[in-house]
Request: fold
Amino acid sequence: MTTENVTLGADLHGGGPADEQPRHMSQGTFAMLLFLGSEAMLFASFFTAYFMVRFNVANNVWPPIDPVTGKKYVLPVAVTGVNTLFLVSSSFTLWWGEHRLQKTGDRKSLERGLLVTIFLGLTFLVIQFNEYWHLGFSPRDQAFGSTFYSLTGLHGLHVIVGLTLLTICYVRSRRRHEFTAERATVLWASSLYWHFVDVVWVILFCLVYLL
Reply:
């Protein structure tokens, strides 16, 4: 009778004792979540500074008027919108590589996903730097220029850090065949960081470029 009860209990829970063991969050992933919490507060402070400047502009004209030309500063919404699509797409390619590794153990798909993600991230940075070159205003042009470059520059710095982490993951997977579905803490932590950077940019684009 005891044996039958144990067996029945295992069947009701979907398998034997090995299947019932919960998967715990690794220390590295937990540490990254705590770090991202502090990063979220950092970006929140920059957004706060940006909106304090914005809503204290005379006559509520935003972007403000260039005192030299007498015209409003112009932000390239269309080009930045396309650039935003590149960055958002990079999250999906990274997720696809992780999904293939976790479900099928396909490390080659992970490497392809990482490589495409890195390429899309680099494309985003190139377009962003090209935008800086053609904006027509600098960080020294009023508080608008200072807050705009500080906010977008801070995000760009995070993109560079994220690309560095993903490149390390790619090299470790390619040369050392290190990551498996069960052992990929560095990969999961780097992925969380990258998705965070992407989400922050979507918020930044909506609030700074569109609003």
